[in-house]
Amino acid sequence: MSADAVRDHAWARIVTDAPQYRPVRVSMSYEPADDPKAVRFALPGGRGWTFPRELLETGLRAPARSGDVEVWPCGRVQAVMEFHGPEGVAVVQFDTNVLDRFLRHTYAAVDAADQLNA
Fold first, then answer.
1. Burial (CB count <10 Å: 0-12, 13-18, 19+), residue 42
2. What's the CA gap between 73 and 60, in Å, rounded?
3. Which positions of the chain have pLDDT values less than 70?
4. pLDDT on residue 3
5. Fewer CB within 10 Å: C terminus or N terminus of the chain?
6. Residue 40: in which H helix or E strand, if any?
7. pLDDT at 30 (0 to 100)
């Protein structure tokens, strides 16, 4: 893990047809040394998806999709992410402020690295 990497965790809710949401802890990471334009989200069990950081940013305002990941706003304070994999589809709902904070951390990490390299 490089010095400018961002690791964050968030509680989200798995959306199912059951009457209750099931909370899950999602791992979010950003490794600019590997790919400065990508973020990675991993659900419990180790399955993870790497996708453009721009998808997350755009999806908080309007529906957006890239490959196996789709993001869209859900009301004023929540966002939904849909992750497609060989074992099926996971639909996960986040509080928007958690995703905004993660994005801010990724941009701050890049800014800090740029200042060190200047």
1. middle
2. 5
3. 1-3, 17-20, 111-118
4. 64
5. C
6. strand 38-42
7. 96
Rounded Cα–Cα distance for residues 79 and 12 (Å): 10
- pLDDT recorded at residue 67: 95
Q: Delimit the domains of the chain by residue range.
A: 6-117
Q: Model pTM? A: 0.86
Per-residue tokens: 105: 């951390």
The one-letter amino acid at 9: H
Residue 69 near residue 89, CB atoms below 8 Å? no
Neighbours of 118 (CB within 10 A): 5
Residue 11's Cβ-count burial label (10 Å; 0-12, 13-18, 19+) is: exposed
Q: According to the model, what pLDDT value does residue 102 have?
A: 97
| pLDDT at 73 (0 to 100) | 97
Question: Left if phi > 0, otherwise alpha if psi is -120 to 50, otherwise beta: which for 67?
Answer: left
Give the pair of three-digit tokens for residue 40: 């990675």
